[in-house]
Amino acid sequence: MVPNRSVFKLMAYLFFAYSIMTIVMSYMPVYFRYQGMTAKELGILLAVGPLASIFAQPFWGFMSDKFKTIKRILIIVVAGTFIATLGLFQMNNLVGYTIMMFVLFLFLAPVTALGDSLSQKTALQHKVSFGRIRMWGSLGFATSSLLAGYYLTFVGIQFIMFPILVMAIITFVFVLSINDVKATNKPVTILNAVKIGANPRLFTFLLIIIFISITHRTNDNYLGIFVTELGGKESLIGWAWFIGVVSEAIVFFAAAFWFRKFNPLTFLMISAVLYSVRWFLMGAATMPETLLILQALHGLTFGIFYIAAFQIVTKLVPEELQATGHVLFITTFFGISGIIGAFIGGLIIESAGVAQLYSYLGYLSVIGFFGLMIYKFVTENRLGETVEYSNT
C-alpha cells in the first residue's frame, strides 16, 4: 500500500528529529573531551541525558495520553529542544554542562520517543508497515551523522551547536504539518499509568532486555571516543554511524517481510546473540576501519531488537495508554540503560580502556540472551500463551 501525504509528512518529521539526536549522541562526547572533560566527568555528563529522559518520557507520554494528542506535545518539546540547545552552549564548566544537558534531554528525549509512538499508531491506522515509516528516522540519523562528521572535521568540533539548531528549526516546521491519530475515548488517569509499570509481565520483560540495551547505549556513547582513540578523525565517526544506521534502515524497510516469520521473542534472542558477537569483535579491533566494517551489524542487532520489542510492549499495554507504554519501553532502553552504560562505561574506560569495555558488553549480551530464553519458556510454555502480533 502506498503511504498517503500524512504518512509522508510523518516520515519527514522523523528524518529531521533523528538528525538532532544523532548529532547530540555522536558528537557531544567528542565536544566535551575537546572542552577538557576527563573520562570520569564525561561519564557523568553522558549519564545526565538518560537520567532526564527517565522523568521526561513517562511524563510527556502520559500527557499525550491524557490530552489525547501527540502532535501538540511534540510542538512543545521540539521548541524546548531549540531553546535548551542555545542555553547549553553558553556554559563552560562541568556544573553548567551538567545542568543544561539535563534540561536539554527533558525536551529532546520525547522528540523521537513520541515520534515512534505516533508512527506505530499511524501504521495501524493507515495499514502500512511501522518499519517502513520508522526507517526514515534511521535515514535521518545516518545522513546527519555523515554530513556532520565532514562539517565538524572542516570547521572544528567547537561549532557543533549550529547543525543542532538548524535541524531543530526544520523539525519544528514539519511537526506543525503532521497529523494526529484518532484517540480512544477511554479516560486516562495517573493510576492507570502507574498500573502499567506494575504489570508483572511487562516489568519482567523490561528488566531482562535492559541487559542488552545497556550494551547498545554504551556503544552509542563511546563509539566516537573509540574511533578517535584508534586514530580516526571526526569524519570517520560520521561514516561509522552512517554505515550502522543505513543497515538499520534496510532492516526496518524489510520488516513487513521478515517479521512475520517467527515470534517476536525469537527475534529478540537472535539479536542478543548478534549483539554479543558484535561487541566481542569490536573489543578486538586495533584499527578504526575495523569498527566501520562491524557497524554493518548495527541493523541486524538494533533493527531486529527494536521492532520486536516494540511489538511486544504494544500487546502488553491497553490501547488508551499506548503512548505511555511505548515511552516506558523507550525510557528503559535509552534512559535507564543510558545512565548505567554512560557512568559505568566511563569508569571502565578510565581503569581498563575502551577495548576492555566492549568485551564486557559482549558478556552482558549473553546474559540477556539467556534471560530472554527463560522468559520465552515461561510465557509461552508454562502459561500456554498464544498472543497474535500484528505485521509490522
UniProtKB/TrEMBL annotation:
PROSITE patterns: MFS (PS50850). It comes from the Bacteria. Residues 163-392 form the Major facilitator superfamily (MFS) profile domain. This is MFS transporter. The keyword DNA repair does not apply. Keywords: Cell inner membrane, Cell membrane, Membrane, Transmembrane, Transmembrane helix, Transport. It is a multi-pass membrane protein. It comes from Alkalihalobacterium chitinilyticum. Its main location: membrane. The chain crosses the membrane at residues 12-30, 42-61, 73-89, 95-114, 135-153, 159-178, 198-216, 236-258, 265-285, 291-313, 325-349, 355-375. It is found in: Cell inner membrane.
